[in-house]
Amino acid sequence: MNQENPNPSDPKLSALLREARATPPLPPRFREGVWRRIEESEIPATARIGWIDALVGWALRPRFALATAIVLVCAGSLFGAVQGHQAAREDAQSRYVASVAPNTLR
After folding, report:
1. CA pair distance 106, 100, nearest whole angstrom
2. How far apart are CA 45 and CA 57, in angstroms?
3. What percent of the chain has pLDDT over 90?
4. C-alpha distances in angstroms, 9 versus 4, 16, 17, 30?
5. Could you give the dihedral angle defined by the CA atoms of residues 85, 87, 91 and 97, in that order, rounded to the nearest 10 degrees?
6. Is 97 in contact with 91 (CB distance < 8 Å)?
7. Phi and psi at residue 40, to the nearest 5°
8. 19 Cβ neighbours under 8 A, 6+ residues apart
9. Alpha-carbon distance 58 to 39, whole Å?
10. What is the pTM of this model?
11. Are 50 and 44 in contact (CB under 8 A)?
């Protein structure tokens, strides 16, 4: 049934249509839930997040984003250089052993 008021100037029909609308009852403890959500929203965001999230949020601010990117690139380059040096050293050692060892050990 279409409950739109075909004649909005008729007050009796408007009142009757308003009464005919079913309003479901609120769930139990509705008000406590609403106030609890309001209080939780008032807690500062930094109190709810962990220190890693706070560090990432700080590092991704536009003011610090370039510095963070530079630090990460430098750290990655340093890590790669150390790993490359270790790999080259192990390779040189294995080549030396292969050059001085008798053919039966190869």
Report:
1. 10
2. 11
3. 23
4. 13, 13, 13, 36
5. 90
6. no
7. -65, -35
8. none
9. 25
10. 0.42
11. no
H or E stretch including 48? helix 45-48
Q: How far, in whole angstroms, is CA 60 from its chain's centroid?
A: 13
Based on its alpha-carbon atoms, the radius of gyration of the chain, rounded to whole angstroms, reads 36
CB-based contact 71:59 (threshold 8 Å): no
Identify the H or E element spanning 105: none
First-last CA distance in the chain? 92
Answer for the pair 84, 76: CB distance below 8 angstroms, yes or no: no
Q: What is the DSSP letter of 5?
A: -
**pLDDT one-digit tens code per residue, 7-32:** 667 888 888 887 777 778 888 888 88
Distance of CA 11 to the CA centre of its chain: 53
Q: For helices 62-100 and 51-59, give the axis angle rounded to 10 degrees.
A: 100
